[in-house]
Amino acid sequence: MGRFLQMTGLAIGLAGLVLQFCISIPASMEAGRSLLGSIVFVFSFFTILTNIGAVLVYASLLSPAGYAWLPAFAGTRIRAGVAVSIALVFIIYAAVLAQLWQPQGLFLLCDVLLHYVTPVLFVLWWLTSGADGRTRWSDISWWVLYPVAYLIYALMRAPFAGEVPYPFLDVARNGPASVAISAAAITGLFLVLCVVAVLADHNIARTRLLSVR
């Protein structure tokens, strides 16, 4: 099951990302951005970056040689951190962002693949094969650096680009207090997911050990 989920997740993740780039960059250029600006725009979404991380985790574990190819993404703690991040993608999109637009055609397909299918597949894969009981509570302080660094990037880019990837990060429209509250709430949710991930990792490892005995 773990191998099946890994290969399926890799195939769907790659397909979703390639399709997203193929349709988003031309659409972005039609909206007035340059080619470089369009590429930066696409890579400015937490969803895209996190799905890339998931694909890199899958790819790094395809064979023993994968550990030499992408050692950082093959690590057990990185796997857990990506699982937390991509679970956040699913929750925030389903709870907040999905109601803000109505994608059609290929955009709808990408929407479903990258916000729903790939997160579910990755979390299922992690629960069945990626978790091994080696995460530590101290890992949370490393995992949280990713969304915090992303938040800093998005807010610093906004005045120069005149846009934000997500509406709840729009200081010009919502005000700094509203953005601070949204950021704090999402960070709090991320930390809760981190705690759940560590507990799940330890419990899964304990269950496997008992089943072996």
Describe the structure.
With 213 residues, the protein is mainly alpha-helical. It has one domain (2-212). It is built from eleven helices and no strands. Helix 1 (2-30) packs antiparallel against helix 7 (105-130), helix 3 crosses helix 7 (105-130) and helix 6 (76-97) crosses helix 11. The radius of gyration is 18 Å and the shape is globular. The mean pLDDT is 91.
Task: Quickly describe the structure.
The protein is mainly alpha-helical.
Topology:
Layout: H1 2-30, H2 35-42, H3 46-60, H4 66-69, H5 71-74, H6 76-97, H7 105-130, H8 139-143, H9 145-161, H10 171-174, H11 176-212
Helix pairs in contact: 1-2, 1-3, 1-7, 3-6, 3-7, 6-7, 6-11
Overall mean pLDDT stands at 91
Number of strands: 0
Give the class from helix and strand content and strand pairing. Answer: mainly alpha
Low-confidence stretches: none
Classify the helix fraction into a percent range. over 70%
Largest sheet: none
Number of helices: 11
In terms of DSSP E residues, the strand content is: under 5%
Instruction: Measure the end-to-end span.
Output: 22 Å
Shape: globular
What is the CA-atom radius of gyration, in angstroms?
Answer: 18 Å
Number of structurally distinct domains: 1
- What are the secondary-structure elements, in order, as H or E? HHHHHHHHHHH
